[in-house]
Amino acid sequence: MTSTPISVVLCARNEASRIEQSILAIQACAPAELIVVDGGSTDDTVAIAERLGTRVVRSGGKGLAPDRQLGADHSSHDLIAFIDADHRPAPDALRSLKRDMEEFGLDVVQAGVGIEDNGFWNRAEHDAMAVFQHQPGPRTMMIGVAPTLYRKEVLQAVRFDEVNKDQSDDADLFKRIVDTGRFTFGVGRTIVPQYHHPEFSDYMGKFKWYGRRDAEFIRTHPDRAHSMWFHLFVRYPLWRPLKSIFTGKPRAAIYCWVCGGTRLGVVLSRRLSALFLRTSRKSSKTGDAA
Questions:
Q1: Is the pLDDT assigned to residue 1 strictly greater than 60?
Q2: What is the dihedral of CA 110, 104, 81, 17, to 10 degrees?
Q3: Engineered SS bond to 15: which of 9, 74, 85, 253, CB 3.0-4.6 Å?
Q4: CA–CA distance, 269 with 6 (Å, rounded to integer)
Q5: What is the pTM of this model?
Q6: Cβ distance 259 to 275 under 8 Å?
Q7: Distances in Å between the alpha carbon of 202 and those of 70, 122, 209?
Q8: Rounded CA gap, 247 and 166, in Å?
Q9: Rounded to whole angstroms, how far apart are CA atoms 257 and 235?
Q10: What is the CA radius of gyration of the chain?
């Protein structure tokens, strides 16, 4: 166990193929407690977690952001690490994240991630993470929600969206953390391996999921919509690919083009659909009045 007790929260839904390895890796880190929040699995996710002796909290499928807050609320300790079913932390990962938090004076610290080599898209994502995420130190806009260590007071003062199951768990949370002006966050030196299914169809499903969350962020935070549009129109298709190519990692550029293009397509589709729906409703009301 680390010198300061750490609660670990693992949010999962239909992760029977990956959760056992993740739980075993987390248990090797000797956390003070491990809580699995099940988001309505229909496979053996819960059975596997219970067989391995973990505490399972069922959310009823409220969504990832509400599930994360539920896990934080059930945690007993002042430090909470979110580690997901695709993460494979080394035995010293929690201690290492705590050192990162202290070194950089942060309230929230994310680990770098290394994607296990299991095909082209895994290698492309790994290269993208190496180019854009693995720069230790404080950040000012946002970081990822997991694998990340939090001071519990952050998640008490600024809670995940517990109502909107379509809300982005990371962009929404860190937008509101920034708004408080009270907490610091950044990326540490710790690297946590991730296992991602290598099939292109799995990656496309993930990119579309990101796009739906991007669209919801734009809808619910119009004051920050410009930053998301800049992310989708400039960072993904231009800045990140150029940096990837100049740093000798062309696979990362391909990853950015496909990921960013897919996300942008989903966002535009959703925004146009919403605009069409509003126009139809206005036309209907006008017709009723006539």
A1: no
A2: 30
A3: 85
A4: 42
A5: 0.91
A6: no
A7: 27, 11, 11
A8: 35
A9: 10
A10: 20
Contact by Cβ (8 Å): 193, 179: no
Identify the three-state secondary structure at position 186: strand
Of 82, 69, 73, 24, which is closest to residue 49 (Cα–Cα)? 24
- In this structure, what token pair is assigned to residue 274? 């919403």
Segment 192-206, tens digit of pLDDT: 999 999 999 999 999
| Alpha-carbon gap, residue 234 to 260, rounded angstroms | 10
Tens digits of residue pLDDT in 76-91: 999 999 999 999 999 9
In whole angstroms, what is the distance from residue 130 CA to residue 127 CA? 5
Beta carbons within 8 Å of 238's beta carbon, 6+ residues apart:
none
Prior bond of 250 cis (ω within 30°) = no
Token pair for residue 56? Answer: 């399972």
Q: What backbone torsions phi and psi does residue 39 show, to the nearest 5 degrees? A: -95, 35
12: left (phi > 0), else alpha (psi -120 to 50), else beta?
Answer: beta
The structural architecture, per CATH, of the domain 1-198 is: Alpha-Beta Complex (3.90)
CB of 147 closer than 8 Å to CB of 113: yes
Burial 180-210 (b: 16+ CB within 10 A, else e): eeebbbbbbbbbbbbbbbbeeeebeebbeeb
Mean pLDDT of 32-42: 97
Q: Tell me the residue type at 64.
A: L
272-289 pLDDT, tens digit each = 998 887 776 666 666 665
